[in-house]
Amino acid sequence: MNEVGLLDLVLEEEFTRDPNLVFLATNSPASLRRRFGSDRVRICAISEQAMTGMAVGAAMSGLRPIVDLNRASFAMLVMDQLVNHAGRMHYLSGGQYQVPMIVTSATRGRQQLGPQNEQCPYGIFMQTPGLAVVVPGSLRDACALLRGATRWPGPVLYFVAPELNRQRGLSAALAAAPLRFGEAAHLRHGDAATIVAIGGAVKVAADAADALAADGVHCDVLDPRTLVPLDTAALAASVRRTGRLVFVDDGPRSGAPAQILSRLLDEPGVAAATGGRIGFVCQPDVPVPSSPPLEEAMWPTEGRIRAEVQRVLGEPE
Amino acid sequence: MTMAVAPARSAGPAAPDPVAMFTSMVLIRVFEERMMELRTAGEVIGPVHPYVGQEAIAVGVCAAMAEVDSLVSHYRGHGHAIARGVDLDALTAELFGRAAGLCGGKAAALISDSRTNLLMSSGIVGAGVPVAAGAAMAAQVRGEPAVSVAFIGDGALGSGAVHETLTIAAVQRLPLVLVCEHNGYQAGNRTEEVYPEVSLLRLAEAHRVRAVGVDGNDVAAVAAAARDAVELARGGGGPTFIEARTYLTRFHLQFERPSSEVRPSDEMAAWRARDPIDTARQSPPLRDRLSDADVEAIWEQARERVERAVETARSSAWPAPEDAATHVWAEGS
Fold it and tell me: Per the CB < 8 Å rule, is B72 touching A57?
């Protein structure tokens, strides 16, 4: 499936478990198609909105469809079906219909796909009620959250960073149990600052925290894993303790980081605890250019994260 | 693609009863006229898109459908719902925004009814077509002899989603019937102002979908065309596009006041002369079977039934304000 091949094996296991799973894409995994047949594993003409709309109707009729959009940029083509239909039919029908479906796509990698196809649009879907938003930060969580998505009662948008494919530990990842949505991973522990890292940026954030720890600056690192539902309680508890907050994301600052911040500021004690000591290491609010020297400015790096943590600590860089 | 050909068990209904279809058309007409009055009076909420003039299509198509079949409608959907057998009290209460409404007052006209497999009445033109295709796919995957029917207007052919779905439906031989109620207007535009040609059959044929034209004001003709299409789909024969020519003899839309929309008077007069209810009344089966007194009794019963629904809606409670936040997430989330 798109950029992370291990997920195909997860799907094969889940397809065996649940006969209601069907797969729709312009390019479906050959082994999945061989094993489960062309009725359940369909290849379609290049129409994201037809595939996604079909998934809505199939989900309302008792199946659990998975639509693989390939790149997250194609989510822009299906905003109507996702926002006006998938996310809203349970509400609009007064609870009569559920829409259990999964839409998968790959976010950004160091692939020079440029301004259109290098995107992390998950923040957009934090303001479209009814849609769960899943952004795994490790290969293991990618597998466990995909399994979790096949058990979620509503529509799920699953965004995976191609960078996760570089991680090791394939068999452990494949063996990971389904993960419940809404539970952040607490990856590093410390009282100096809270680093909230998302998706493909989780690893570099943890590496930066390790480097800071070697210098005696111990940070909490939390990966929300699902942006909707968001583990606000875990994030707020950390921020109340550390009093400093740094977001690290491959996506734009105005996307998920801004959304998460607004939720946290609603939590008692958070605004007072930070006192404005909040930082961002994200893609600036500009498209991602193709040329490597231009693209380089769009990535959170260990150096940038360390500098931002030092800044919110009020210490010289 | 392996084509799951449904078993030839007869899931379809018996040949439709002309009196039942006539009665259903009258009920829709009375209901629509009353809802417009009540919208003007401020009792019905939201926009009202009256179905007046097109009743033969909803009734003819739904007469061809079996219980297992699914239906996708749109914002002009009261007629489809009534023809499909949606509970009139719950429908009316929904249009009044009450807690006892089909969708608890959240939907107004954009209703769903799981009891009759009415999946949705989308407020987005054309968007219900892929959804209906998905319901058709579900039947195909499970080997169930169920057909999915979607109503659209001629305006929906402007939407890429419809064309894209037709391509996939043809290739995957989905048990899907698209019923295009071609009334010649797309909100305020006449279709010939915005389309390269007025016959829509060739658009469907270009996608290699079986296309059938029918007089949408002749309920018997619609029922026959729909029955062929539904049973073909049920037997694994793939999708059909039905173009039913018709006309809205009231208007597109009203809020607080009836629309001031102006139509050419000769055009309106010609279509009113072909009113689907009058046409059915004068057609051979009913001309012989129903006396004038019988017909008047059918109208009177419809008026009484609608008034009962209105009284029930009026006496229903409003939803509690906190219900605004229910049903965002499915149970188990």
Answer: yes
- Cis-peptide into A293, omega within 30 deg: no
A167 Rama class: left (phi>0) / alpha (psi -120 to 50) / beta = beta
Residue B178 tokens read as 């698209």
Q: Which phi-psi region, left, alpha or beta, contains residue B211 (left: φ > 0; alpha: ψ -120 to 50)?
A: beta
Do the Cβ atoms of B327 and A89 come within 8 Å? no
Provide the sign of the torsion angle of the four alpha carbons B279, B280, B285, B290, taken in this order: negative
Structure tokens at A92: 């609009």
- Give the separation between CA B216 and CA A172, rounded to whole angstroms: 62
* pLDDT tens for chain A, residues 1 to 317: 668 999 999 999 999 999 999 999 999 899 999 999 999 999 999 999 999 999 999 999 999 999 999 999 999 999 999 999 999 999 999 999 999 999 999 999 999 999 999 999 999 999 999 999 999 999 999 999 999 999 999 999 999 999 999 999 999 999 999 999 999 999 999 999 999 999 999 999 999 999 999 999 999 999 999 999 999 999 999 999 999 999 999 999 999 999 999 999 999 999 999 999 999 999 999 999 999 999 999 999 999 999 999 999 996 54
Cβ distance B165 to A132 less than 8 Å, yes or no, reads: no
Nearest Cα residue to B319 out of B51, B19, B99, B28: B99
Of the candidates B101, B114, B132, the beta carbon closest to that of A97 is on: B114
**Could you tell me the two tokens for A224?**
């929300």
Report CB contact under 8 Å: A47, B165.
yes
Annotate B207-224 with b (16+ C-beta within 10 A) or e (fewer): bebbbbbbbbbbbbbbbb
Task: Give percent of chain B above pLDDT 70.
Answer: 96
> Pick from A12, A230, A229: which is nearest to B332 by CA?
A229
Task: Give the confidence band of B179 by pLDDT, cuts at 50, 70, 90.
Answer: very high
CA angle A184, A185, A190 (to 5 degrees): 110
Place of tokens 């999708």: B239
**Residue B291, token pair as written in the block:** 């006396």
For residue A34, give how far its alpha carbon lies from the nearest alpha carbon of chain B (Å): 12
Strand pairing class (A185-188; A219-223): antiparallel
Which residues on A lie below 8 Å from B68 (Cβ)?
A: none
Give me the sheet containing A193-197, strands edge to edge. Answer: A185-188, A219-223, A193-197, A245-252, A278-283
CB contact under 8 A, A61 and B106: no
Confidence check: pLDDT of B322 > 90: yes
DSSP category for residue B195 = S
Distance from CA of B185 to the nearest CA of A (A): 24
Neighbouring C-alpha atoms within 13 Å toward the C-beta of B75 = 15
**Residue to test with chain B: of A23, A91, A126, A180, most B Cβ within 10 A:** A91
Put simply, the answer to whether A154 touches B329 (Cβ < 8 Å) is yes
CA separation, residue A122 to residues A53, A114, B73, B218 (Å) = 20, 18, 31, 50
Which of B127, B138, B327 lies closest to A58 in CB terms?
B138
